[in-house]
Specification:
The structure holds two protein chains of two kinds. By secondary structure, chain A is of the alpha/beta class. Chain A has helices at residues 2-10, 22-28, 50-66, 85-88, and strands at residues 15-19, 32-35, 72-75. In chain B, strands 1, 3, 5, 6 and 7 form a five-stranded mixed sheet that branches. A two-stranded antiparallel sheet of chain B has the order 2-4. Classes of the chains: A alpha/beta, B alpha/beta. Strand 1 of chain A pairs parallel with strand 7 of chain B, so a sheet runs across the interface.
Amino acid sequence: MSLVARHLEAAGIPTVILACARDITASAFPPRAVFLNYPLGNPAGRPHDPENQHAVLEAALSLLETARAPGTIVDLPHRWAPDDGWMARVYDDNH
Amino acid sequence: MTHVAYIEKTHAYYRRKGFGEVYRYAHHTEGPFQPLAKPLAESRLMLISSAGFALIPEDGPAPQPFRGINVGEKDQVEVFPIPSDTPAARIRYVTGAHNRAESPMDDPDAFFPVTRLAELRAAGRVGALAREFLRIRPCYSQRKTRELDAPEVLRRCRAEGVDVALLAPI
């Protein structure tokens, strides 16, 4: 998706990515991204939590307004769960 | 742990599964940058998703699952328009999810935020929404993305007079 963002940006359309995979996104050096440390599949916020979803979208819109250089990634403060056990289970064969 | 090391984990996973060639993620150290041309309150916004969802018809059979990632078997444009006023209740995730035990995928606004964007539009935070948002199929071919899908996304953005784009990779 970062490649699509780069293509649009190069053609004059400002972009922002909602990213749950920070390393993949950063590797592709997109113009702008907000990083939400949630499991893949929830780039626009926590399911059934409109307030959280609004916070994520507002952060993305704000970044469109404030970023001054390409490759800007803002780390959002939201946590998926009180502990980070879900992160250890990613690509666990038994999961 | 501040974030999951997806690149390292996917490489290890596919090695364990016996795949010899490891997927090479896009890597750049510089890139384009276009400042906003006008305030968001006067801008038209496009939403682009790579989530594998389908629309439930008003009346008719439920959507069928379709294949998730294009692993290179097709070399054709895979960009699909979704009316931006589609109710979230008609959007159903139909492909195998990553880690579904962690992500129920039962709230479209968590991956294709039509309701939230309509609210932002109504509140005047953004000036307008594209008439049709876009879904693209995930693809392992960076060449196909660059040469086929990205230009089609751009063509549709220009046809709609889009000023800014929000991208939501799955």
